[in-house]
Here is the input.
Amino acid sequence: MGPLKGIKVIELAQIMAGPTCGMLLADMGADVIKVEKLPGGDDTRSYSEPAVKGESAAFMILNRNKRGIAVNLKTAGGLEVVKRLLAGADVVTENYRKGTLEKLGLGYDVLQALNPRLIYCAISGYGRTGPYADKGGFDLIAQGVNLAGIAHILELEHRITQLESDNARLMSGHTPPTRTAAGRTNTNTNGEQL
Here is the structure.
């Protein structure tokens, strides 16, 4: 139940920000299908303590209320499975590095032709344009970049400390569900890249 009941979301995301987005969409009632990579699955599966019966608590929390499938996107069969899922979806969320899905044959242009109504929600650490667009974004890296700048300005060369852990990654997953839900409220519109 929830305001997004009847909305089908395909999640091509891993670690924190992308799964946070999918978690919130699922919490609002969307049918979220998480596509995990083979081999290995989502990297958060292997996070250390806390764990329950060998499964990472972070993975369980971020993937609650979702269904899941594991495929190898580097094979024709795996791509075909994902394209079939996407053909009937309302939304796709992804947080791969810029250009990764294009290389696999799942970029925005391909998916727009496959399903013109599909809302394409791309989440990245540094945005899709600009000098850092090609870099992977992780919370600790962003903290290091920001703290180094702050330390330089404040002349604190030997006093760098870590900010609150994982806040940036988790918060970057909070805005896309709202935009995604708003993009899907008018079902007569064509797909949109967010």
About this structure: Helices lie at 17-27, 57-62, 76-87, 100-104, 108-114, 139-154, 167-172, 175-185. Confidence is low (pLDDT under 50) at residues 157-170. The longest helix spans residues 139-154. The beta strands are 8-12, 31-37, 51-52, 55-56, 66-71, 91-94, 119-122.
